[in-house]
Amino acid sequence: xxxxxxxxxxxxxxxxxxxxxxxxxxxxxxxxxxxxxxxxxxxxxxxxxxxxxxxxxxxxxxxxxxxxxxxxxxxxxxxxxxxxxxxxxxxxxxxxxxxxxxxxxxxxxxxxxxxxxxxxxxxxxxxxxxxxxxxxxxxxxxxxxxxxxxxxxxxxxxxxxxxxxxxxxxxxxxxxxxxxxxxxxxxxxxxxxxxxxxxxxxxxxxxxxxxxxxxxxxxxxxxxxxxxxxxxxxxxxxxxxxxxxxxxxxxxxxxxxxxxxxxxxxxxxxxxxxxxxxxxxxxxxxxxxxxxxxxxxxxxxxxxxxxxxxxxxxxxxxxxxxxxxxxxxxxxxxxxxxxxxxxxxxxxx
Length: 349
Known about the structure:
6-stranded mixed sheet; alpha/beta; 16 strands
């Protein structure tokens, strides 16, 4: 895939469990054809989607890559906007069945490519690895619930010192420069997974103007919430990039009509931006001094709990990888290759 291709997530491992935007991102009403791939772990779904996306790019057609929030080396879907087509992984945890079968959706069944006899012989191992992975994942979500509570406490402490009226003037100046119109959408540019926290910067790289909201203690989420509200009140459309930990918080906004990307960054972030807004300007220093110790303690706890979550996701990923090897060995990939070529002819003509 090209380095400048759009890359993002349509789901997240969050404090509320697995939080999916699949219903919106892959709504059948948005596409002429929606291909739903069904198949087990290691059956070639991700590779098929990646190669179809690369075929689009080879033909000079843009492709958007939707990555798996639990394994960012794997794809959940590929969208070819110019062809009105999308290809998605329709298996758990984002089970997808046709809403308008034939008229919009087509199910691509890869289960028939499996050697069921070989899999039966390894039935016990497959089941055990599945159960072990589920236990690790459940523990990881427990850590994320705890992390969400810690971050909520920290946010409450910081926002009690945050002057929203003062910040509103800066927000109003930004919104006044933006073009009205456009739809509001939600996506994720980052994920919490076996690799820790993974971020894609394709929207930021594409932006004409980059505005960094430098945030030291967590007040940036308050700034972003007010920015989204003000933009909406003024009829400005945008893509809202949600926090993977808490999907009810915003970590970045892309105003597509103007190519303006506003994002939260660490106060020490040295990435290239056209403008930097230090949210500490809107925090009352005396009030913050009274709660700084508790904020710091929250941060230490958050770091430890995050490591616990990432470690559990990593252990679950090992189990998944071992299961993928078993299924991959029992798979007839020549049929998968033929299926991919059929889809390429259908999509690109």
